[in-house]
Amino acid sequence: MRPPDLNLNPLTFNMEIFNVYPLLDLEPVKAKGAYVYCQDGKRYLDFYGGHAVISIGHSHPHYVNKISDQLQNIGFYSNSVQNPLQKIFANKLGEISGYEDYQVFFSNSGAESVENALKMASFHNGKSKVISFDKAFHGRTSNALSVTDNEKYQAPINQDNEVIFIDFNDLAGLDRELSKGDVCAVVIEPIQGIGGIRVFDDVFLQQASQLCREHNAVLICDEIQSGAGRTGKFFAHQHAEIKPDIITIAKGMGNGFPFAATLLSPDFEPWYGQLGSTFGGNHLACTAATAVLEVIEDEQLIHNANEVGKYFKQQLSRLPQIKEVRGRGLMIGVEFPFPIKKLRQRLIEEEQVVTGVSSNPNVLRLLPPLNISKKETDQFINAMQNALKQHQLLQ
Ligand SMILES: Cc1ncc(COP(=O)(O)O)c(C=O)c1O
Q: Which of 227, 289, 306, 325 is 20–30 Å from 55 (CA)?
């Protein structure tokens, strides 16, 4: 048998990783709950969850056991056979989210679920113009990228879609565009994540939902970052008590296992071949996502996100040098009157705390696991106080 290639000669085997990510100087080798343990022997408090993915905490025992047991039986078969695990997930999701009457289509990443949502909207009403919002982020596949407000990411091949970007919370602008009658879909992150944790007004969402109905446009809520209980409701749009036609989910729904889905109202009638995916909804993915739902339910994590989120936001707003604290539940943005790059670096290097960034250079994005305790948020506040003190001294 061939021995494992552990000591490759870098001069002989020199395939490069395509260099598109600026990397933090961290090499996690183990993770548990709200902590990651790195190669340097240090323990880091994780308030970022690897781009908003860790919902029930790293390596939750129920999640690890369920996936391990499933792998002993069958890890994968394609969507050409019966897979009751899909129905088990769908039933549980319907029950917890209140969307029992919706249908689910499985995929593997957030961008795919947005791609499928836009495609289904266009199949549904035969139109193609889409409305999105300034600072929106919906992913990097072609349609998802076209509704993402960042020209830098668009190659010429991505630029043919007809998309209109409207200002945040601009109801008059939305009304004006929808009134033209040619809009296929409106796609909204109820709380923008990468855009800097910007919360759409409930009234705006309610009016947008109403206008979409009036003008035969499909309302798509992108809950990839804000869903799975993160904001203190199962979906962030539920704070506004609206019911979109399509909902996209990914990230926290799999807690790290690649899992995504598009939820469609009963108005959408599927036909064979309309959508498809080799890996989507496979045995391991459904097991992982069902385990996440079970933990969310058993440990009352939506309630915890609400309670701890409120407490944490209060504590954060008492810190010095802060311009604004915003967000809902445990999806929180902290805006400073200065760029946070150095502060974030200091938090990692000196306080062993990991946080996230956004497209706004002054905003720190905080997305801890939903089972975080008040004690751990106190630990975070303490670290912030130290880092801010240093920041002031060194300025
Ligand atoms: C709101 C939102 N939509 C879509 C995506 C794309 O998800 P993925 O990276 O899994 O394709 C992201 C990723 O950050 C996101 O935050």
A: 325
